[in-house]
Design a protein that fits this description.
It is globular and about 65 Å long. It is of the alpha/beta class. The longest helix has 14 residues. The strands form five sheets. An eight-stranded mixed sheet has the order 8-9-11-12-13-14-15-16. A three-stranded antiparallel sheet has the order 1-6-5, with no helix packed on it.
Length: 384
């Protein structure tokens, strides 16, 4: 399996030299959080995510990164990054959270899903059980925060793989980031437990949750997971005051029926019709290379389903120039314009439409965007 370090050598990227000075041997496993011992022969139960793995001595959980070592749960995902890059926040995608700012995107190895269509499978579908599958770079939480500040980022995004799997590392980084006025963002499959969310919730400002389908069959067959915990996480994030945006990859012949897309849209609207919904074009990858890219008509059909459900902000992703503008729900005036991952124009005035004064739901104040006091969560507006 090829190693991967996603670092682009441009003015916005973390430089290769910065990473190389942290290059070390593989990190020794650290004590994990969110587990309990069981009576049977030294086994343990992990309750970090909703697999609730019961792990025998010497074995690993489904994620491949949490090991029962002598009756104690250890994580192989602490302190080691496989990628770091300063990205426009719109790439997460987050369109209503500190728009136009830069986020330091970091990832550890592993995932608790086994998605057949994963675009980052080289770093997500790996296991510490097989030895170091990807060459990583050791960084202390303090190092990550210093790099984010040095590159004038407004936030740290835990992304590319599943941040739940490197939860302990993300937790320590997020606490330090908050002290420096940086926001924290999860790009996640939403399969963490409520215990995990409650623990990191005070430091988590925003999340983009991948709601891949509205059918248990899809999650069981293509992800080896289940739907209901994802829905519960979305509801609980809302309760905790975390800014939420949702992404759905539309896969031809798999989850592209209007009925299913309408069910997703109605669920989002029930939680909050101001939650932005990103309808993402599927591209063949990993074990689904035989499936065609999503036709534009299917994406437009999903857009219509979202509007019928009453969603106020719907976007089409992975298609340049298609449904990328933020429209005022009061008068229809374009208040933010984007091209690709870049914000080209932001006409909001204190979060309001300049034409009619309607407040646009989102978080528009934070570090580098002018803004929230250090150590405090940036506050959402209009997300009610």
């Amino acid at each position: 399996m090829p190693g991967i370090i996603v670092i682009k050598y441009d003015s916005n990227a973390v430089s290769y030299d910065e990473f190389m000075k942290h290059r070390m041997n593989r990190v020794l496993p650290s004590e994990a959080m969110l587990w309990r011992p069981r009576r049977e022969g030294g086994s343990v139960e992990c309750y970090l995510c909703n697999h609730h793995c019961r792990i025998a001595a010497g074995e690993y959980g489904i994620c491949g990164m949490r090991e029962n070592r002598d009756g104690r749960l250890r994580t192989h995902a602490y302190g080691e990054l496989v990628t770091a890059h300063a990205d426009p926040i719109e790439k997460k995608p987050l369109y209503h959270f500190l728009p136009g700012t830069t986020s330091l995107s970091v990832a550890g190895m592993g995932c608790n899903f086994k998605c057949s269509f994963c675009q980052n499978w080289q770093i997500s579908q790996v296991s510490a059980r097989d030895g170091p599958p990807v060459e990583g770079y050791r960084m202390r939480p303090k190092d990550v925060v210093e790099i984010a500040l040095g590159h004038r980022c407004s936030s740290v995004s835990y992304t590319y793989t599943e941040p739940t799997v490197f939860f302990e590392y993300a937790y320590d980084i997020s606490r330090l980031a908050r002290l420096e006025g940086l926001a924290n963002i999860f790009v996640t499959n939403g399969f963490m437990t409520t215990e995990a969310l409650a623990l990191i919730g005070p430091f988590l400002d925003a999340a983009n949750v991948d709601l891949k389908s509205f059918r248990e069959e899809f999650y069981a067959k293509l992800c080896r997971a289940s739907l209901m915990p994802v829905l519960e996480s979305i509801r609980f994030m809302k309760k905790l005051g975390i800014w939420i945006e949702i992404t759905t990859p539309v896969i031809p012949g798999v989850n592209d029926s209007i009925g299913e897309l309408s069910n997703i849209a109605r669920f989002i609207a029930e939680v909050d019709r101001n939650i932005p919904w990103h309808i993402s074009r599927f591209h063949p990858d990993y074990r689904m290379t035989g499936v065609d890219a999503t036709p534009l008509e299917s994406l437009r059909g999903a857009l219509s389903a979202g509007r019928e459900a009453g969603l106020r902000h719907i976007y089409i992703g992975n298609v340049v120039g298609e449904a990328a503008e933020t429209l005022c729900p009061g008068c229809g005036n374009p208040v933010m314009r984007r091209k690709g991952f870049w914000l080209e124009r932001n006409d909001l005035r204190d979060g309001q439409c300049p034409r009619c004064g309607t407040r646009i739901a989102g978080v528009f104040r934070g570090r580098q965007a002018g803004l929230a006091p250090q150590g405090q969560r940036a506050e959402a507006t209009g997300n009610r």
